[in-house]
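task queued by scheduler; priority normal; single chain, no ligands, no partner chains; default sampling; output format set to structure tokens
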Amino acid sequence: MRFTTSRTARGVAALSAALIAAVAVPTAASAEDALDLETVEALPLASAPFSPRHCDAESDCVRGGAASDEATGDARVLAAIGPSISGEAYDEEGLPLDGTAVLFTWEGARVAEVPVAEGAYAFDSTMTPAGDYKVLVYSDDVDIASQWAAEPDSPMPARITVAFSDPGAVAAPDVELDDSEAFVWAIVTQKATWDADTLCVAFYDETFTTQSTSTPVAIDCAAPGQPVRLDRLDPDQYHAMRVAPRELTTAAAWKSYRGDDYWYGNQDVIWDSAAIHLGAPGDWWLADAHFTDVDWTKSGFEAISWMVNWGYADGFADGTYRPRTSVNRAQMARFLYRYAVDYGDPTVETPLAPPFFDVPESASNYTPILWMTQSGLADGFPDGSYRPTSAVNRAQMARFLYRFAGEPAVDLPAKSPFTDVPTTASNYAAIVWMTEAGLADGFSDGTFRPTNPVNRSQMANFMYKFWLSS
């Protein structure tokens, strides 16, 4: 393969989210890996397989139907109940598996999960209003990879369509799990010039020749910012990832597509893009945030993508990240506060009046700044200011992260490792911890340069390394 290989993506536990759900009516897949689904017509109330008079507050009833209360003669609307979804999962030898089935909307929002017991699972009908869905099945055996419910030999999860609300059960495609498949979770970002409701992603292996002749080995689609999952990938090969702002759900659609797209690493052509080596089967995080001023050749690409995809930092309306722009004290508070929200429940007590004259209640970072100061991560100044627009330097950044980490014990050398950081410096312990933990490096001339401002790319790298070390 002629495109350039990148550093290995880093592993992470499965992603989470929450919303609502539904089911499947699959037919046979086409020769081009398409899954054509029949539309199920709604049953008229008269043909519903039960009598409305049997409905009460505890019963399952047809959406929009009505029943008469014999005691009062009052009519009431019945509960809305749709089909349930059921499926089977087994291993390569045909033995039933135990595990978990997870229901997603077709756009990628997590809806619910249910146990897989003795090879069977079912989602309750209350989870299944009309819509399009997909199902992911995990085994309790950690050596067996998870997989979408899909038609045989299809790189795309089955599109499970619910178009009616009458009670019933619909079968999802059977799932055969084995230990030879790797997969990647990715949250993809669209270009600033795009305004798409759906982004689709395709992975190609090393046999790629041209877009019109090469077949993707994995495909998934999701709304921008929602996770896509690419499976059935060979962990011993390098793969290229292509993103398009169109719903391309078959290999034939990707081969014929001539519209706007980009390749992993924010490149317009595959030959300039990066290839990803998965390393081993399992859960993997693939960073992929699209900014016009950050591509995979930049040292901060993975860290910046991680910062943005997890919501700790934002890009700008013009499609840039501005990696060389300095981080100020208000932005630092926001980065750490958002991170703390993901990994705990940061407590913030709202005072009767703002504690700093330069941070009004209307400020977008008011709550993060309150949290920073109330939790002891940052201090205000004697004149009653917080100075939110003041740039954060390397020494201050070290202190913020050191306090955020809980001020872990560190062996302080009697002689400073840096010529410009004396042992008497107030941030000496924080700087030594940063370097010993591998979060920051000194410079070749023996300095740390504590007064140098920290830019947005460097801050992403510091926080990314902190997360990896946690």
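post-processing summary
- The first strand starts at residue 4 and ends at 5.
- The longest helix spans residues 329-342.
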